[in-house]
Amino acid sequence: QKEVEQDPGPLSVPEGAIVSLNCTYSNSAFQYFMWYRQYSRKGPELLMYTYSSGNKEDGRFTAQVDKSSKYISLFIRDSQPSDSATYLCAGLGQNFVFGPGTRLSVLP
Amino acid sequence: EAEVAQSPRYKITEKSQAVAFWCDPISGHATLYWYRQILGQGPELLVQFQDESVVDDSQLPKDRFSAERLKGVDSTLKIQPAELGDSAMYLCASRQTDEQYFGPGTRLTVT
Lengths: 108, 111
Fold this sequence. Notes:
The complex is a heterodimer.
Chain A: E1 4-6, E2 11-14, E3 19-25, E4 32-38, E5 45-50, E6 54-58, E7 61-66, E8 71-76, E9 85-92, E10 96-98, E11 102-107
Parallel strand pairs in A: 2-11
Antiparallel strand pairs in A: 1-3, 3-8, 4-5, 4-9, 6-7, 7-8, 9-10, 9-11
Chain B: E1 5-7, E2 10-13, E3 19-24, E4 31-37, E5 44-50, E6 53-56, E7 65-68, E8 75-79, E9 88-96, E10 99-102, E11 106-110
Parallel strand pairs in B: 2-11
Antiparallel strand pairs in B: 1-3, 3-8, 4-5, 4-9, 5-6, 7-8, 9-10, 9-11
């Protein structure tokens, strides 16, 4: 079992939809959780990071962590075609461990 | 805005040749990472530096890969000899507190 798992997609949604991206993890030592956005042939870009269970909001993005079920989510409101990218979740224990990413397409 | 710099952005090399990648982290970031990312997968750690010291190189194939950060600032990752299976994106990242920032990566193709 991999330490961080994600559905690789692809996930296609119409413009304006609410997008829900999810990860599960198995390592109880993870203290911090991150979401990265990666456009094709580019490096990952840090979107959000959270420490505790609960929600953290930044503009159209909300990150949610549930440590009891080892489940993390990223919600994107009013999705735009420019949100089309691969979204990577990661946990930080001793080091950063990444999921495989979910490929998202927002269709105009 | 400060960024992690990497060069070259793209590299094509023949198998058995040597190849080197360079990274300049965000100024003041003591922790530097090299990752390898295969298409369709997340980044996987190759080596971690704290200043000029290697903290973790357990996943670095040391028979062919080497990494250094001599003055604790910029870093070089070398592959010699390159193999077909080394084709991937090589990402450098630097870290301050718990925030890690990536460079644009070097896409390596081994023919």
